Amino acid sequence: MVLNYEILGHKADLKIRVFGKTKKELFLNAVLAMGESLKPNGKSSIVNRKIKVKSGNLETLLVDFLSEVLYLVQVNKEIYINVEFNKFSDNEIEAELSGQKVERFGEDIKAVTYHNLDVRQKEDDNWEATILFDV
Amino acid sequence: MIFKKDFKKINDWLWEIPKNFRSDMQVPARAYVSGEMLEEAFKDKSLEQLVNVSTLPGIQRHALAMPDMHEGYASPIGGVAAIKISEGVISPGVCGYDINCGMRLLKSIHNEKEVKPYLQDLATEIQNQVPSGLGRGRKIKLGLEQINKILEQGTHILLKQGYGEKEDVENCEATGRLDWADASVVSDHAKNRGRDQVGTLGSGNHFLEIQKVVEIFDEKVAEVFGLFKDQIVIMVHCGSRGLGHQVCTDYLRIMIPAMQKYRIRVPDREFACVPFNSSEGKRYFSAMASAANYAWANRYMIAHYVRQSWKKALGEKEKLELLYDVAHNIIKKEKYKIDGRETEVAVHRKGATRAFPPEHPEIPEKYRSVGQPVLIPGSMGTASYVLAGTEKGKEAFYSTCHGAGRIMSRHEATRKISGQEVVRNLESKGIIIKCWSLRGIAEEAPLAYKNIDDVVEVVHNAGLSKKVVKLVPLAVIKGE
Fold it and tell me: Which residues of B touch A132 (CB under 8 A)?
């Protein structure tokens, strides 16, 4: 299996580096990384959610998109394992999330931060992002 | 990079980075640390972050760091910035995501011997009564109307609805209600996240401890606070939960693009700020106040559930009185004499506790002769302290430390020590531990934190607040 994210050391918070062959895959993997970090337990019925996010640029779009996903995760107690993008530009996303209801989470994520945020395309054309979550 | 040579030693407990260290500094940066702690501080980015704080438009006198400082995002945790309201900014990142994270201490009239036989039952009962909220939230989901009332009226609405007593409101910072709160500037997202979390602890370093008073440093102040040797007290550490986190998220998102309009540049997006008196600034200040009220209501309801458990374990007539409740992540308007003129500043405290001196009008009358009670928790299983505010604290805008302060990442802590080992260590000291997740326990192991005794020694010796009593835990109840 190809590693789609890694956890980096950070004193008080959770720092994750996410990889993707495309921007869309990068955003999807960021959703998966955030979901796995919440250590969900007792998954059950399938759910679908629609999401729309606008932002200033690709970097802040990633954070604002994840913040919106985190809100849905927290309020509905759900975890999302796939994202269907209906619209995807550097400052706007319209997408459909699919996932499952969960009974409880083992970890909490308070927020997705903009701190030392880094989103870039590497020389081999793959994408990489570093995101810090407040936990 | 910052080196020790860049610092000017003011005294054994205070070190300064002069304003000319970096051209964008508006004021010098000061850290209240011992020489040894300063060496430690170079291991993370907290000092660099402190210098960044000193660049904020309108900051007065010094950017300050307390001895428990560690790396955060934007400002270090343990940071204080007093920013002139008429010409400065307001910055959500220098308050933090957990708005009004804070401490509450309940006092019993019993000593350890009297409570010991009931301790195990009491700890179990509290664990069941006060859920963490990670899927173990309260079964009741409040309607938006009730959330709005809590946001605007804080603890006052709960008192009206029959919870707690008059003293619970009187003995709380700001009586548990900031009157510039406005529910209409808090998003529905934030309100929805708060609907089932009133009266929940949350995860991470949040906890509830049954403690005893082991040492008294100041008899006179202890007496005014109603504290005595071997007394059983209950300490609560938590904040505004998902609601506060969402308020911070929402307003960072508003302020990042707004900064262009106001031509403000900051060293890190998390410093996003706007003029205090701008429409965005005013809205955030009211939203922050609303989240702060929610946090006070949260700790107020936790105290209610703790009291129910206490009565169930010890008897219906048994009471717990509130000593005090104080925030350590908050922005408040305060007035100080700066350059000979009375100046209104927005004091941003991020991981720093307000510590008002004796005779300050904003502290409860019963404590006015001795200063505001300051509640400082240690890391899990170690000591905690009650301190009192001092006049000398004025040099730090009446601020002091807020806890032990991390020295190791959560990840590293779990690699170094297992949850079972931490539990065994606590049990070997005779401490009861109640938790739902062993991983969460490992993350909060004492080895991941500074020594609380050293931290408190610095603020005591620097004169920012003085030691009153030392507390040690008999039972620890964790969120997750």
Answer: 73
Which chain A residue's Cα is nearest to B440?
Answer: A107
How close is the nearest chain B Cα to the Cα of A118, in Å? Answer: 12
CA distances, B330 to each of B49, B55, B86, B255 (Å): 18, 20, 19, 18
Q: How many helices (H) and strands (E) does chain A have?
A: 2, 10
Strands (E), A27-109: 40-41, 46-54, 78-88, 92-101, 104-105
Active-site residue flag, B402: yes
Distance from CA of A72 to the nearest CA of B (A): 9
Please give the Cα distance from B31 to B78 (Å, whole number): 10
How far is the alpha carbon of A94 from chain B, nearest alpha carbon, in Å?
Answer: 18
Distance from CA of B128 to the nearest CA of A (A): 16
Contact across the interface for A14 and B97, Cβ inside 8 Å: no
3-state secondary structure of B353: strand
Residue A99 CA: distances (Å) to CA of A40, A49, A83, A108: 12, 9, 9, 18
Contacts of B140 (CB under 8 A, 6+ apart): B196
Q: pLDDT, tens digit, for every residue of B409-466?
A: 887 888 899 999 999 999 999 999 998 778 778 888 999 999 999 999 999 999 999 9
Domains of chain B: 4-407+449-478 (3.90.1860.10)
Is A135's CB within 8 Å of B204's CB?
yes
pTM: 0.96
Mean predicted lDDT score pLDDT of chain B: 95
Can you list the positions of beta strands (E) in B140-269? 207-216, 231-238
Of all residues in chain B, the one with the smallest CA distance to A112 is B249
3-state SS class at B135: coil
**B252 contact residues in A (CB cutoff 8 A):** 114
Is the pLDDT reported for residue B136 higher than 80? no
CA dihedral sign, ordered B277, B280, B286, B291: negative
Q: Is B209 annotated as a binding residue?
A: yes
A-chain CB neighbours of B239 within 8 Å are none
B451-470: b (≥16 Cβ within 10 Å) or e: bbebbbebbbbbbbbbbbbb
pLDDT-based confidence at residue A12 (cuts at 50, 70, 90): low
Q: Which of B134, B207, B439 to mutate to test the interface with A (most CBs of A within 10 A)?
A: B134
Mean pLDDT of B199-213: 91
Judge contact between B14 and B32, C-beta under 8 A: yes
CB neighbour list of residue B21: distance below 8 Å, 6 or more residues apart: B2, B6, B29, B51
Q: Are strands B465-478 and B432-434 parallel, antiparallel or unpaired?
A: parallel
**Which residues of chain B have a CB within 8 Å of the CB of A117?**
269
Q: Name the pairing type of β-strands A118-121 and A127-134.
A: antiparallel
What tokens were used for B27? 């004021």
3-state secondary structure of B214: strand
Of A9, A71, A116, the CB nearest to B246: A71
- Across A47-79, b (16+ Cβ under 10 Å) vs e yields bebebebebeebbbbbbbbbbbbbbbbbbebbb
B206 assigned binding-site residue = yes
